[in-house]
Design goal:
Number of helices: 4
Order of helices and strands: HHHH
Helix content: 40-55%
Length: 89
């Protein structure tokens, strides 16, 4: 185990979800692992409706800050499509 604060601990401390949500998510994570699948705690909590997208991003930014990275460099998924310039006539 590392000194890093666990995702679920941060979610509870920030008031985003309850310890019971974390326990349920851990059970789901173990079940998936037994089937050879790996899913991150944040994604499980999101799928279970225990946290929302903004809360997930908030926790990820917090973790990134603890790791000494700039919070604005977090990858939050694909960017919105940019309009293509019209071809010159």
């Amino acid at each position: 185990m590392t000194d890093r604060e666990l995702f679920g601990e941060i979610a509870v401390r920030k008031g985003f979800c309850a310890r019971s949500d974390i326990r349920r998510a851990l059970c789901r994570q173990r079940s998936l692992r037994r089937r050879g699948e790996h899913k991150l705690m944040g994604m499980i909590l999101l799928e279970q409706g225990a946290i929302d997208n903004a809360q997930l991003i908030s926790i990820l930014r917090y973790i990134q800050m603890l790791d000494g990275e700039r919070p604005d460099t977090i990858d939050t998924g694909p960017a919105s499509p940019q309009p293509h310039p019209s071809p010159a006539s």
